[in-house]
Amino acid sequence: MNAIWALGTMSGTSLDGVDAAFLRTDGESISAFGETAYRAYAEPEREVIRRAFGLWPGDDGVAEAAALVEAAHVAVLGPLASGADLVGFHGQTLAHDPGGRGTHQAGDGAEVARRLGLPVAWDFRSADVAAGGQGAPLAPFFHHACARWARLGQPVAFLNLGGVGNVTWVDPAAPRPEDPGALVAFDTGPANAPLNDLLLARHGMAQDEGGLLALSGQADAEVVRAFLCNDWLLRSPPKSLDRHFPDLLAAVEGLSVADAAATLVAAATACVAASFAHMPARPALLLVCGGGRHNRALMEGLAAAAPCPVAPVESIGLNGDMLEAQAFAYLAVRVQRGLPLSAPMTTGVPRPLPGGRISLP
Ligand SMILES: Nc1ncnc2c1ncn2[C@@H]1O[C@H](COP(=O)(O)OP(=O)(O)OP(=O)(O)O)[C@@H](O)[C@H]1O
Ligand SMILES: CC(=O)N[C@H]1[C@@H]2OC[C@@H](O2)[C@@H](O)[C@@H]1O[C@H](C)C(=O)O
């Protein structure tokens, strides 16, 4: 198949807004990166979505959140639509319980297709969960394509620091992402989400800008040690996380806000440090994407804790704010071609598995 221009989107767990990015691809290799766009959620919109966290289709409040997610996507994608052959619409994860009720991304791809007048690939995670996988992380197949696009000569790891963290060890020598030995990927644990929640609860602010507050505080080593004994963190991959990590905010309740922020940063970096034990070999480089790379406290913590050099993905020519949106452009083309989106070493699914569905306008 010839490469097409796919327009991918991500409305992530940290609830900052909708990212959109063009990618030219045949679903295997990257031909070109294109224009990007972003639309922040307004605080009242965030509140509607926040109230729907943990809810499932049909629950009160979900339809309102889904309509808002669809409208925000149509608003950011509308002006770009004429340049796109296909849209990858991830939607907004509201709940994720792969071993139980499944996974829930709000937003109807058929409605987005109708309003944009474009074919839309969506519902990326449910086939994987139905087949016994975690349904997440799904960006790893794209990380593999990125490593090959950058012509990296050695295995590296990609780390996404969003609301939740996820890491992908990738061997760029493997021709296909589903090849055994190509990838090992899993969620590392909470990243920015508890920090954002802390800042909102104590200062009415959306985030610790630049990580300055955390840099001014002192991490409580005892809280971090206790946190690392959590069952989920001790579990081996495959594993994926819901946004809400129990008890983490409660554990820092008695600390000053600066010490609490420093403690949450130390917890997030300790989760990443622990993830290296599950990689087949030490990566040559830890390449960081996602909003957390703008947090100096997180980046300094990682540099101290990782057993390899740490650098933002910009160091190999990628855009760390748009990598997930690009990933869902890449995966959209794979949905269209019926190619696998996941594999045993990414989500724990028993075999490489295609997924997603396409809605035509
Ligand atoms: N300048 C900054 N200073 C500090 N933190 C920042 C900055 N910019 C972004 N962040 C953090 O990164 C978050 C956004 O990251 P990102 O967009 O990668 O997450 P997401 O896509 O919503 O989450 P996920 O990847 O878990 O789905 C913000 O909510 C904030 O916590
Ligand atoms: C269920 C869900 O939406 N998970 C997200 C979340 O945010 C980061 C991490 O947890 C990752 O597993 C996933 O998103 C990315 C895009 C992924 O699937 O690779």
Automatic annotation (TrEMBL):
Its EC number is 2.7.1.170. Keywords: Carbohydrate metabolism, Kinase, Transferase. It comes from the Bacteria. SUPFAM superfamilies: Actin-like ATPase domain. InterPro entries: Anhydro_N_Ac-Mur_kinase (IPR005338), ATPase_NBD (IPR043129). GO terms for molecular function: kinase activity. Gene3D superfamilies: 3.30.420.40. Pfam families: AnmK. Transmembrane segments: none annotated. This is Anhydro-N-acetylmuramic acid kinase.
